[in-house]
Amino acid sequence: MTPEPPVEAFHDLLKGMAALSGNRIVGDIARLYGKGAPPDLSIACNHKQIASKQWLVEALAETLPRPDGPVWVLGAWYGVLGALLLDDDRLDIGQVVSLDIDPTCAPVAETLNHRHVATGRFRAVTADMTELDFAALSPAPGLVVNTSCEHLDDVPGWLASLPAGLPLLLQSNDYYREPDHRSCVPSLDAFREQAGLAEICFAGARPTKNYTRFMLIGRR
Length: 220
Ligand SMILES: C[S@@+](CC[C@H](N)C(=O)[O-])C[C@H]1O[C@@H](n2cnc3c(N)ncnc32)[C@H](O)[C@@H]1O
Known about the structure:
By secondary structure, this protein is of the alpha/beta class. It has helices at about 5-20, 25-35, 40-45, 45-65, 80-85, 105-110, 115-120, 155-160, 190-195, and strands at about 70-75, 95-100, 120-125, 145, 165-175, 200-205, 210-220. About 40% of the residues lie in helices and about 20% in strands. Helix 8 links the parallel strand 4 (about 145) and strand 5 (about 165-175). The longest helix is centred in the first third of the chain and has 17 residues, at about 45-65. The protein is globular. Helix 1 runs antiparallel to helix 2 (about 25-35). It folds into two domains: about 1-35; about 45-220, Rossmann fold (3-Layer(aba) Sandwich). The chain binds S-adenosylmethionine (SAM). S-adenosylmethionine binds near residues 100, 101 and 129. S-adenosylmethionine binds near residues 49, 74 and 75. One of its GO terms (molecular function) is methyltransferase activity.
């Protein structure tokens, strides 16, 4: 078997790609590798993950480019989506709050988004999204993003706990084979039904090799 390339090799390669492309996020990921990245950062940053987040940013730029309050990203993992949201010129987002239940995620997310932590535009929180009282948050969120709906036990129950009228962007998928997935849906229509949003301004499906990802933008 070919041995895995050492982390230093990723670091060097990414620094080169950052210099070549001038892309600030690639530079931030290179920096993170230099500081000791978790092994599954490469999964969080693979081309399929990035493509689904770019799809999200495109759809948001078309529908809700200026959320009226902080954007809460739930099940945010290592904060890659926050980095994309804060870097895109088509969006005007004052602050991203990147929330995950796994306590190892927040330090990685804050290292990745270090430029935005420094300006107060990014913070990471460790919490269970299903335990949060979104109605009590001050300032009120301008948008709540959940790209991990398939990981929840009870998507309708969680949505029912949110304040009516809250702007939402939700993603799920039909990737039933993944053991951590508990609420997959077979189609976009099934996702629409599961979410039961009062208002929908975007609904789309994006097929990939192994599964289809679904996205809804609207209000609870
Ligand atoms: C595999 S990751 C991201 C998957 C998602 N489809 C994406 O591409 O963004 C799922 C994340 O959701 C987090 N998560 C699962 N249940 C959660 C909960 N109740 N509250 C907060 N985070 C949760 C996990 O810790 C994990 O980091």
